[in-house]
Amino acid sequence: MNQKSYEQILRAAKYILQMRPVLNVDALFSDETENYVNPMEPMPGDRVTIRFRTAKDNVDEVYLISGPMKEPMEYDYSSEDFDYYKIEVALEQEAFRYFFEVKSGKTYCFYNKLGVTKDLSDGHSFCLQPGFSTPDWAKGAVMYQIYTDRFYNGDRTNDVLNNEYIYVDQPARRIMDWNARPLGLDVQKFYGGDLEGVRQKLDYLQELGIDVIYFNPLFVSPSNHKYDIQDYDYIDPHFGKIVVDEGELLPHWAKENTQATRYINRVTRKENLEASNQFFVQLVEEIHARGMKVILDGVFNHCGSFNKWMDKERIYEHQPGYEKGAYVSAESPYRTFFHFNNEHEWPYNRFYDGWWGHDTLPKLNFENSPKLVEYIMKIAKKWVSPPYNVDGWRLDVAADLGLTSEYNHKFWKMFREAVKEANPNAIIIAEHYGDPAAWLKGDEWDTVMNYDAFMEPLTWFFTGMEKHSDAYHEGMLGNADSFAGAMSYHMASFMGPSLQVAMNELSNHDHSRFLTRTNHKVGRSDQFDYDAAKEGVDPAVMREAVVMQMTWPGAPTIYYGDEAGVCGFTDPDNRRTYPWGHEDRLMLDFHRAMVRLHKAYPVFARGSLKFLLTDYNCLAYGRFDQKEQIIVAFNNNAQERELTVKVWPAGVGMNQRMTRIFYTYADGFSEEPEEYQVERGELKVLLPRTSAVVLRAMQE
User: Fold this and answer.
1) Tell me, what's the pLDDT at 17?
2) Is the domain of 125 the same as that of 183?
3) What is this structure's pTM?
4) What is the rounded CA–CA span in Å between residue 589 and residue 620?
5) Is residue 127 part of a domain?
6) CA-CA distances (angstroms) from residue 205 to 56, 63, 150, 224, 586?
7) CA distance 599 to 620
């Protein structure tokens, strides 16, 4: 070999040695879990270690960028396939937002909550808010929503009676057939479910594996849904205890409730109210003794026309111990609680603002009534304090409270301060549609009912249906890219502590039952007969959805009866009674098994999430931390599919063995294990139609 050739070879070798492999973007990862942020819920003044993951020997530099600050991260350690970089930052009072820049040779990219991205807006940056934390008991907790009137009738002495009163121009009606379908205007029709019924079914809930019971409103109210509160200070005796039962039913010719003396006695006599509150105290104590928590529904945007502050129905007008309502008298101490548009109509001034124009739902006038604000703050504290000791609030239409956005935020800051002062371990969950980021900055709500980042995208993917069953779009059915994009985009609105406690539901009292959505029937209950809601449903699709619900970040929340196969279009049809003795046993056993699986692996509550495969009607993602790696894969097609899933980005070894720990398919489900072999970081898994599998990396 001549000198020239030798020098050419040396130059080539030197060039090769200086070259980095192509930047492996699939390996890049960080998030806000405790795997990559320590401590995950820091206090002001804490020093926090933030980590970032890359492929092994693949990058030159990793930077953390926060505002104008750009700091190099130092190499921390390596695993078999990855390098980890770290940086320590000192936090003050304000939120700390950050993202990463990764360099490999002349190649570089940015990484934030959307992954590798060019979108560097603050809304997609990682964020730590010093001083913000959510209750540990709620992280990944399995919740169960109970619509009390339709769950179980345990005490027939407190049932609403026929003609007990009038509401929305119709007499109250006791439905004697527990299995009858809710029809038409349903608010004044009662099936008799009560808190004694819940108490009698606590064994059932405990066997199901429930951690938290979320009750739709329980306070005194004339409707079965009770979102039109009559008295925030007391549990409704129709759900609690009626110890003094006097008075007459409303005469058939009566048009107003001043003569509804039986109802007036039941809901205004302090003996009944105090007995109901005391029963609730005992119920919460028993629920707590079983290791479960309780969340109440708080309706503070509006009250009801029966409310003692308004008293449009004149229930309280002549009752001892009650002040005159604002409808009754211009001198009422509650006059400022509402906005009246005609100042010359008393007594009986009907010109008040109603929520969305409904005179049965008087809008509460917080901006102009410090006394009202003070009262509601007392209510906020009362129920999370002894002797009631409730574990949190779910807030109805929370973004509608007040007349302006500015006041809305001011109110919820006060509300949070009041609740957390009384019970630091209580949770605050808001009902909200749309981007919740403005309320999830650590000083208002803890989290939300997770429509945009769970229920909506999941429903589109598995069923092609809108969550009310109001539309079917074939292009959304099985659109895995749309699903992954929507989930990633909307999850970016949550900080880590909020995401881990987000209420992840498939169904609830405001939307069609998920099982009904699987039949692709578009419309509402008034368009169909009773059986239409269950005709053509596909329980296997629902089982797939439950697998996702129980393996996704957040608090999986079961709407009563979903686990038993209850069907129904949007309300009132979604409020059918629990079918005691007629449950879908396969669906029920499946739910019990999935809840067991969810609770057996802490990685589902606190681990990281990474999408691994998106294909038509097929999905796979990983849930992982340093100790556990689990892969979840779905085939929602009507035919068998073999999936090749790149599992190494979820921390699974390049040639590791995996075992199947759960499997659902068209005709049932199985917990029988089956081994799989990963080859060069990829896993081939044959999935029959309408199936899902959960696989765990085996510890060598």
Assistant:
1) 42
2) no
3) 0.95
4) 24
5) yes
6) 47, 49, 15, 22, 17
7) 21
pLDDT score at 185: 84
Q: What is the DSSP code string of 271-311?
A: HHHHHHHHHHHHHHHHHHHTT-EEEEEE--SB--TT-TTT-
CATH number, domain with residue 407 = 3.20.20.80
The last residue of one of the domains, among 578, 599, 620, is 599
d(CA 238, CA 225): 12
My answer on whether 572 and 655 are in the same domain is: no
Q: Evaluate whether residue 278 is within a structural domain.
A: no
Q: Are 197 and 206 in contact (CB under 8 A)?
A: no
Q: Are 336 and 391 in contact (CB under 8 A)?
A: no
Question: How far is CA 664 from its chain centroid?
Answer: 24
Look at the alpha carbons of 371, 375, 376, 378 in this order and tell me if their dihedral is positive or negative. Answer: positive
Report whether the peptide linkage leading into residue 572 is cis, meaning its omega lies within 30 degrees of zero.
yes
Range of the domain at 71: 17-131
- pLDDT at position 2, please? 52
- Whether 221 and 353 map to the same domain: the answer is yes
Answer yes or no: is 284 within a domain: no
Nearest to 498 by CA among 70, 36, 94, 128: 128
Beta bridge mates, 687: 641
pLDDT digits (tens, 9 = 90+) for 544-570: 999 999 999 999 999 999 999 999 999
Give dist(CA 444, CA 562) in Å, integer. Answer: 31
Q: Do 550 and 438 reside in the same domain of the chain?
A: yes
So what's the pLDDT on residue 700? 65
d(CA 133, CA 280): 29
pLDDT digits (tens, 9 = 90+) for 252-287: 889 899 999 999 999 999 999 999 999 999 999 999
177 burial (CB, 10 Å; 0-12 / 13-18 / 19+) is exposed
pLDDT of 3 above 60: no
- 3-state SS assignment for residue 618: strand
Q: How many helices (H) and strands (E) does the chain have?
A: 14, 33
> How long is the chain?
700
User: What is the amino acid identity at position 624?
Assistant: F
Distance, CA of 342 to CA of 359 (rounded, Å): 15
Provide the token pair at 581: 């003795």
* Tokens linked to 658: 């995996």
Residue 258: inside a domain, yes or no? no
CATH of the domain at 23: 2.60.40.10
Closest CA to 33 of 635, 532, 553: 553
| Mean pLDDT, rounded, for 391-410 | 95
* End residue of a domain, out of 564, 599, 634: 599
